[in-house]
Amino acid sequence: MSPKTLMLGNEAVARGAYEAGAAVASAYPGTPSTEITENLAKYGEIFTEWAPNEKVALEVSLGASIGGARAICAMKHVGLNVAADPLFTASYTGVGGGLVICVADDQGMHSSQNEQDSRQYARASKILMLEPSDSAECKQFVKRAFALSEQFDTPALLRLCTRVSHSRGLVEMEEREKPAPKEYVKNPGKYVMMPAMARARRVAVEERTRALREFAETTELNVVEYYDRSIGIISAGIAYEYVKEALGEKASYLKLGVIYPLPARKIKEFFESVRVCYVMEELDPFIEEHCRALGLAVIGKDQFSAIGEYTAAQIRETVLGQPPDQTPAASEPLPARPPVMCAGCPHRGVFYALKQFPGLTVMGDIGCYTLAALPPLQMMDACVCMGASIGMAHGMEKAAESSGQLSGRERAAKTVAVLGDSTFIHSGITGLIDVVYNKGTSTVIILDNSITGMTGHQENPATGYTIKGEPTRQVDLQKLCEAAGVDRVTTVDPFDLDTLRKTIKEELAAAEPSVIIAKRPCALLKKVKREGPYRIDADKCLRCGSCLRIGCPAITKANALTTATAGALPAIDLTQCAGCGYCARVCKAGAIAGAMAPAVTRTGGGDPA
Amino acid sequence: MTNVLIAGVGGQGALFAGRVLGRAAIQAGCDVKISEVHGMSQRGGSVETVVRFDREKVHSPLIDKGGADFILALELLEAYRSIGYLKNGGWLIASTQRIDPMPVITGVASYPADIVEKLTKTGARVKALDALSLAIESGGAKMANVVLIGVLAGALAGDLAIAKEDWLTALRQAVPEKLLAMNLKAFELGHNWRENLGEIQTI
Question: Which helix (H) or strand (E) holds B46?
Fold first, then answer.
């Protein structure tokens, strides 16, 4: 047996798929699911791709499954909303080769716009769902999921979350299985889901759910551990690890590995064997409601929040009445440290230029650039979901037309939609087609930084490379927009402030749809050449504060112990500066220049002014 | 069970430091869990990586307030922010590097003065060092994380100790060949700093 390796939950999912003999993988990146696919791509035996969005990813995986291969796709919780359409009907078609759909929830919203509970999808689509609680189980459960998918002719959902996906634990490696190759067999009754055929499959889905329910009663994936029976805990996934940490052998446990369908007899039996019974689950009372439907008076959301993440300390306090330890604390309120656009980020140029247009409404989107909503740029009015910016800008224009206070054109002249290249491909293009088709005049800015940024640098159809780094045909964003019917498409360097400002002004004024492609690669890309750090010449500096207003984390006041900005001498931190030179372009006094040593490093609180 | 919290600013390499520590603990025969946060929080925000290791099975990847035997802080304000996680009798080892958060840059807040003294006044056991200068001495400012790992390697004593060879193996596994020499130097500079730790080795 090979030694144990320290793996992220996501890495272990990929390893499990490899060992299960998976042959095809498709996904769209989304925190916290991204590394599943990045790791799948490292296995030469698995065809792995980035799809334009999660719907396509699931369709590719379903096609591969019907074609006879074991297939896997991965997405974050909100990605499953995009893929929900194929999901619900894949439940009816069932599979050829095993099909595993990984979905990673984000309790606490570390990197997401909402906190939805994906378990509801399993119930709604009537699809088997397993939930591992650490890296070792991630690998084991994926392999079981493939086998169960084939045994019960169902896609299998694997529910993950930030703390499982992004925690590392020890995993034992095994050999890759070689599942017997399956031929594609024509079967329109199973795969052509039109009413007559779907009605028959609807019945098959119910029969399958009955069989899975019976399976859930007996499978070793649902484990009972008896210690002290005065407290019983029904739990699953990461919540099980927290509660085990908190209570150890002071309680007995029913750990559910199968989340849908949930067993009935097994839960009842456990409930009856303990004095009080808690259900410990983050987010929705999913298991709790099942217990209540069985008539079991469990303790759950009446004592534990449906919001955010649980902690062992909180469980100890609520269940055992043990207050948390007194710990040292700061003697003053501390400044928050919200995430910021990186030093050198090309998006900064676009939002700084937009800030020159007073009264502008900016419909934003999902990506690093959402950070422009925060001070000091504060140039975003809305951010909802992938690709929503364009449709929402169009809706603003049409709302104005019907309200009569402002003409639609006047509204559109004060509104832009801003979204990234990858987000545009994902689902922005359909919004743009809508604008053109329905006679809108929106201005759309595509932030083309040559990569999918926020999720940690993934290739996409506009970058010209596949997930495996092979060169491929690149989507030409300019031509794509033109083909959708946009005649005014301009490409601008976001750091060319004057040209960008002029272009935005012209396109806002144009009484037709227009697209501005702000093109400059992400500052974190290895191929981006970095100049040495920039420096501020104290003699030339007018202390006007312009460079402090671009929101660059590398530029701060030389003495930041005072809150005053006016009159403060700015300084550039050598360890932070990416050498992009945008601050030098903004400085009216010409006081900032590049590659002049020595720059400043900063230590301590309270260095001299 | 040994719990180490690594606090810093996104981009400073807290995740990397956590992985090196985790690998070293595996070399020493421990079960290990590490919690990381990826995505938006990595963009210059506060980041916390937790590494837990033990001869027994480790359950939760997270720790509670008052749960850390050691806090390694890559930045002073983040050291101050993390103090509530320190166990009674634990040690906070802080790099004196300062990175202003955006509210300080924009002038709506100020960076606290005299953080090391204030931390000491809480009664916590605190050691501060200029890890950034040691990192630059080793070949690059980015290696302040490895300097702190070196300090921790020197500080873990008694039952908690991990053999130096295990640390070096972990570093060799984690660092690309061409950067290895610099990283080993950063580790050594941190490790040698143990002389300044004094009574820390009595834990």
Answer: strand B46-54
Residue A329: which of B77, B83, B108 has the nearest Cβ? B83
CA distance A47 to A67: 14
Which member of B43, B115, B132 has the closest CB to residue A339? B43
Q: What is the pLDDT of residue A598?
A: 45
Whole-angstrom distance, CA of residue A111 vs CA of residue A300: 27
Q: Which of A519, A543, A564 is the last residue of a domain?
A: A519
Owning domain of residue A155:
4-218
- Does residue A536 share a domain with residue A465? no
pLDDT of amino acid A606: 39
Q: Which residues contact A254 (CB under 8 A, 6 or more apart)?
A: A222, A223, A224, A232, A233, A234, A235, A266, A267, A270
Separation of alpha carbons B49 and A68, rounded Å: 42
Distance from the Cα of A394 to chain B's closest Cα (Å) equals 28
Using alpha carbons, list the distances in angstroms from residue A190 to A123, A187, A273, A534, A574. 21, 5, 44, 64, 63
pLDDT-derived band at A530 (thresholds 50, 70, 90) equals confident
A423 with A547, same domain: the answer is no
Whether B57 has its CB under 8 Å from any CB of chain A: the answer is no
Domains contained in chain A, number: 4
**Residue A250 confidence (pLDDT) above 90:** yes
Quick one: A358 and A439 in the same domain?
A: yes
C-alpha to C-alpha distance for A272 and A560, rounded to whole angstroms: 62
User: Above 80 in pLDDT, residue B55?
Assistant: yes
DSSP string, B90-140: EEEEEE-B----HHHHTTSS-PPS-HHHHHHHTT-EEEEE-HHHHHHHHT-
> Which residues make Cβ contacts (< 8 Å) with residue A305, sequence separation at least 6?
none
Going by pLDDT thresholds of 50, 70 and 90, the confidence category of residue B38 is confident
Q: What is the pTM of this model?
A: 0.95
Report the relative pairing of strands B46-54 and A156-161 from DSSP bridges.
unpaired
**Chain B positions in Cβ-Cβ contact with residue A108 (cut-off 8 Å):** none
- Most B-contacting residue of A2, A4, A6 (CB-CB within 10 A), to test interface: A6
A333 occurs within a structural domain: no
Distance CA B78, CA B99 (A): 9
A360 with A510: CB under 8 angstroms?
Answer: no
Fold (CATH) for B2-196? Pyruvate-ferredoxin Oxidoreductase; domain 3 (3.40.920)
Chain centroid, CA B190 distance in Å: 11
| pLDDT reported for residue A597 | 42
Summarize pLDDT for A375-431 with one digit per residue, the tens. Answer: 999 999 999 999 999 999 999 999 998 887 778 899 999 999 999 999 999 999 999
Tens of pLDDT, residue by residue over A507-521, are: 999 999 999 999 999
Which residues in chain A are contacts of B35 at CB distance < 8 A? 163, 166-167
Last residue of a domain, one of A187, A218, A249: A218
Q: Are strands A167-172 and A4-8 parallel, antiparallel or unpaired?
A: antiparallel
The DSSP call for residue B49 is E
Give one DSSP letter per residue of B87-101, joined into a string.
EEEEEEEEE-B----
In this prediction, residue A131 carries a pLDDT of 98
For residue range B153-178, list pLDDT tens digits in order: 988 877 778 999 999 999 999 999 99
ipTM associated with this complex: 0.94
Chains A, B: CB pairs < 8 Å: 249
A171 with A266, same domain?
Answer: no
Residue A556 near residue A571 (C-beta atoms within 8 A) = yes
CB atoms within 10 A of CB A207: 9
- In angstroms, rounded to a whole number, what is the distance separating the alpha carbons of residues A580 and A547? 13
Mutation site, A168, A173, A332, A559, interface B, largest B CB count within 10 A: A168
- Min Cα distance A5 → chain B (Å) is 8
